[in-house]
Amino acid sequence: MATNIWNPNVSLAQAPRKTSLEFSDSTYYYNYEMTNVALNELADIRNGTAFKADAEGVPFVQGRHLRGGCLDTEDLAMGVPPARSFEDARLQAGDVLVDTRGATNWTASIERADYPLFAVLDLAIVRLRGDNVLSAYLALFLNLPTTQSALATMRSTATIPRLGLGALGQLEIPVPPIYVQELMVALDSERRKQSQLTKKLGEAQDRLTDEILRRVAEGVPMPDGNPAWAIHRQTNLARDRLAYSTPKNGDTIMSTKKSPGKGGTTHVVPDSDGGWNVKRGGASRASGHFDTKQQAVDRAREISRNAQSELKIHNKDGKIAQSDSHGNDPRSVKG
After folding, report:
1. Cα separations (Å) of 91 from 158, 245, 305?
2. Which residues contact 277 (CB under 8 A, 6 or more apart)?
3. Which of 66, 110, 185, 249 has minimal Cβ neighbours within 10 Å of its Cβ?
């Protein structure tokens, strides 16, 4: 008896049966006849061909190209053409490949076969006989976690688990109507697209965060107009509000002194190596370095306003050219 992974207590003799799938509000999508058929009744199943590496040979699909349930043709292995009939061993559009070696039997379908392509011996080639099952649906079904759990019970218990062709052929495949298979394939395709976009977004966020952290660590300002500038600015403001002191033993601890705040000063001073620095009054190190004086003034004014300190803008000779008060006025000035 074929293995029924949906309900082990139901045999093929009880099919067809009713099931439901919520793709539409129409009852047309909710009720349909579905049979369960052993894979070896739906398709011919055979192994791939022996592989011997040859840089000048023909392309082969290996198990690593099926990981994730999607065929990756970017880095195919090159090997000696098969000794048996070339056309007999060649993969065709619509073939389904199953990795029979390892703890996960990843599966992928061949959508196109525009050039000679072959499968290594560890891959099972499933070639559907009729038109009542879509190859993409079959690959989708074989990759489902429930199906993989069923396949796990069929593998040999050797050091490297292997799935025999006989056991694979006994797996029972639910066969819904073609329109339902198409809907399932479309849903799976959208899921994969979303996963790829989410992965790319995460990678872009990681690169952006790494660049922000690098610039903050090196004291390099973010360029104007860069979308990361707001994050960088908030990071600088948070850093400027922290006051640290170094005890005699050299351990750095957070100071208990009050923030410079009212009564403190913020200075824009020339850098001996070029450019301009923003420094707090009495600080030995600059809190920011800028290529132009205007950039330094804008940054210092922002810090001064937040800290309610006195802003001192120096000339290249070190003399104070301008002073602005941001919250340290001795009295309110009318007019």
Report:
1. 29, 71, 71
2. 268, 269, 270, 271, 286, 288, 289, 290, 296
3. 249
Distance of alpha carbon 148 from alpha carbon 66, whole angstroms: 14
- What's the topology of domain 12-187? Adenine-n6-DNA-methyltransferase TaqI; Chain A, domain 2 (3.90.220)
Q: How far is CA 127 from the centre of its chain?
A: 33
In whole angstroms, how large is the CA radius of gyration of the chain? 34
As given in the structure block, the two tokens for residue 87 are 């056309």
pLDDT tens figures, 261-311: 445 789 999 988 889 899 888 777 888 889 899 998 998 888 888 878 889
Joined tokens for residue 50: 């022996």
CB 95 within 8 A of CB 67: no
In the numeric block, which tokens belong to residue 214?
A: 């690098």
Q: Are 66 and 106 in contact (CB under 8 A)?
A: yes
Cα distance between residue 188 and residue 217, in whole Å: 43
- Parse the chain into domains and list their residue ranges: 12-187, 233-325
C-beta of residue 307 within 8 angstroms of C-beta of residue 240: yes
DSSP structure class, residue 196: H
Tokens read off for 197: 């976009």
Closest CA to 287 of 213, 233, 227: 233
d(CA 257, CA 17): 78
Residue 134 DSSP code: -
CA distance linking residue 91 with residue 77, whole number of Å: 15
Q: Say what the pTM is.
A: 0.56
308: left (phi over 0), alpha (psi -120 to 50) or beta: left
DSSP 39-103: HHHHEEEEE-B---EEEEEEEEE-GGGGGGGS---TT-EEEPPPSS-HHHHS--TT-EEEE-BSS
User: Is the pLDDT at 100 greater than 90, yes or no?
Assistant: yes
pLDDT at 14 over 60: no
Instruction: Show the tokens assigned to 95.
Output: 């073939």
Residue 16, CA distances (Å) to 10, 42, 130 in order: 11, 16, 18
